[in-house]
Structure formats: C-alpha cells, structure tokens
Amino acid sequence: MALLSANYTLSPIGNSTLIADKPITLPGGVVLGQGGQLIRPVNFDNSVTARGFVTYGTPLSFIKTNLNLNSSVNYSRSPGLINDQVNFSNNYTFSQGIVLASNVSEKVDFTLSYNFNYNKVENTIQSKLNNNYYYQTASAKFNWIFGKGFVFQTDLNQQTYTGLADSFNQKFTLWNAAFGKKFLKKQAGELKISVFDLLNQNSSITRNLTETYLEDVRSLVLRRYFMLTFTYSLRAFGLGGNSERNRNNPPMDGGGERRFDRQGPGRMGNF
Q1: How many Cβ atoms are within 10 Å of 42's Cβ, its own excluded?
Q2: What pTM was computed for the model?
Q3: Which of 63, 146, 186, 241 is deepest in the core (most CB within 10 A)?
C-alpha cells in the first residue's frame, strides 16, 4: 500500500521576529534591550507540506509470523520573518520500520519491531539552526497463557537518541511485565500484578524548533510502579445464551484475555 499527500496553504500565519542588536525604543515608549526579541504574527505568501508512506506485509508461514515493512518521508517548508528578512525552514523526516508479529497459537504470541527516524532541518537565513538528529526504537512483546488460566505478559522497549545536546544523547530501556490468573466461570475473572518500568529508566525527550532557537526538553515522567488489578469479562458472562450464535461468533483470545501495549512514556494500555 502506498499513500501520497501534499498541502499548499495560502496566506499562512507565521512569526515576525525583531532581534535587537542594541536597545530600541518601541511605540508606546517600551524599551527593547539588546538581545531582546519582539514577536508578532503576520501573514506570508504560502507554506508547503508533503508526505509519502509505503507499507508491505506478507505472512512467513515457516515461522508462523507476519512480516510488515514500512517507510515514510515527510517534508515541510515554513516561512518566518527575522529582522525583516524572510527565512524558510525546510524540515525533512525519514522513517523506516520493520515488524514481525507471530501467529503461533491462541496461547502464545510475540511481536518484534524496529523503527529508525532521521530528522534534518535547513534554514535559508538562520543557518546556525541547521541540524540533524535521529532516534531508534527496538521493541519485543511476549504473551503466554499456560496451565489452568495463568497469564504472563512482558514487553521490552529500547530507545536511542543521537544528534541532540550532549546530555540528551542517551539510550534507555523500558521493561514492563505482568503475571495473572484467570478464574471464575468461563475464566471471566482475572487477577493480575503488573510492574511498569522495571529498570526504572523511563524518560521523555523532545526537540522544539522555531525561527530563532532550538531547544531539547526532558520532561518529568512516571517511573517504576506496581499495580494490582482485577478484571471481569462481561463478554464471557454472556456466551452461554445461544449456542448457535456462539459457534458462529467464537470468543476471541479465550473469552477474556487482554494484552497490553505501551501507549507512551510511563503509560500502558488497558489489560
């Protein structure tokens, strides 16, 4: 599957920035000191964004998995005004990913994935803000139902940042795990203990770019914690009413099993 899209915007709103190389008196008697900035919104002629995405999937029957490859390219051209000179910021993002998702059985499944992202920024006036950086994400997930309703789930996610400020170039690993037991009629109930960020390394890093500055930001995020949960599946409770309907619409994942996927730093999906 391939997807191409582009947007051309007329009269976009951008920033006009005045950087004072010496004290300046503004209308109203306000003094803008040396190095100070005055930013106001203005309309420009146009801005452009474009995106291309390609994905390919195929089953690998000899190892009972599905292979998925995906590539994407993003481009944006944004105008800005700096000391009455127009600056165009050209942003390029290249991404490549691969996913191996198992189809072993209803009791066992796993997923392996890797994603590489490269980012490049070029400015026509503010060349000192030209930069490039990349980050990589490698992850593995495993789910296992065994014995009489026992459930084991774990996922490992390693993130690597390169090209940022020295203290932000880092590698850290997120490891989550859970162990539970299904019980009650039709295994509708599940009691589970989960550990999030087992290695206590969770971190959140972002890069912000404007017409006049570049900054790397590290945000405070929730690290290691434990959680005990009880889940009761109403879906499993309603399976006994119509045997013909049950045969035509069999329950998924054993009638009550939930898998969890990481939804971002320090957060997990429902399980």
Answers
A1: 12
A2: 0.73
A3: 186
